[in-house]
Amino acid sequence: MADDRNSDDSERLKAVRPQREVMTRQRLPYFVGISADSVGSQGLAMHIVVIPPGARAAPHLHQGYETAIYVLEGRVETRYGRQLEHSVISEAGDFLYIPPDLPHEAINLSDSEPARAVVARNDAAEQEKVLPYTPDSDAQAAA
Q1: Rounded to whole angstroms, how far apart are CA atoms 7 and 137?
Q2: Looking at residue 118, which CATH number applies to its domain?
Q3: Quick check: is 141 in a domain?
Q4: 120 is in which domain, residue-wise?
Q5: What does the CA dihedral 57, 78, 89, 55 come to, rounded to 10 degrees?
Q6: DSSP state, 141?
Q7: How many domains, the chain?
Q8: Residue 110 lies in a domain
Q9: What pLDDT sits at residue 142?
């Protein structure tokens, strides 16, 4: 069995137990798990997101990276598209894939219970590339 005392930190297994929530650029609370900051990952981020009862994310997009979501509890409507004109509802046990650069927002459909999900992304510093998104009001008026 190899002795890990001579390994550099980049080769060590690291365990993380989130201790506090942080507010994201999407205006949702996250419990940070795996990221460049927490463990030195280079191409992966993984967190727990909590959407409070009746709350919604600010419309946004993830510049240049994919997002995978697994819903642990609750029901969440995700609106997406250039005008946020499309919608999908996810509930506990569902996976959701969001391609890079797709505008979207998540809405907790419950007024009394939080929604929780595991969120994974293929960018270890993903919060640096969350961009606010405002649908084009002229296009909305014409629809």
Answers
A1: 55
A2: 2.60.120.10
A3: no
A4: 20-129
A5: 10
A6: H
A7: 1
A8: yes
A9: 41
- Name 49's bridge partners: 30, 117
pLDDT tens digit string along 93-115?
999 999 999 999 999 999 999 99
Which strands, in side-by-side order, build the sheet including 75-80?
A: 86-91, 75-80, 104-108, 60-62, 130-132
pLDDT for 1 = 41
Closest listed residue to residue 70, CA positions, set 102, 100, 47:
47
Domain presence at residue 69: yes
In a domain, 10, yes or no: no
Compute the 3-state secondary structure of the chain and give helix, strand, coil in percent, each to the nearest 5. Answer: 15, 40, 45
Q: CB of 76 within 8 A of CB of 90?
A: yes
Q: Which residues pair with residue 104 across a beta bridge?
A: 60, 80
Q: How far is CA 13 from the centre of its chain?
A: 23
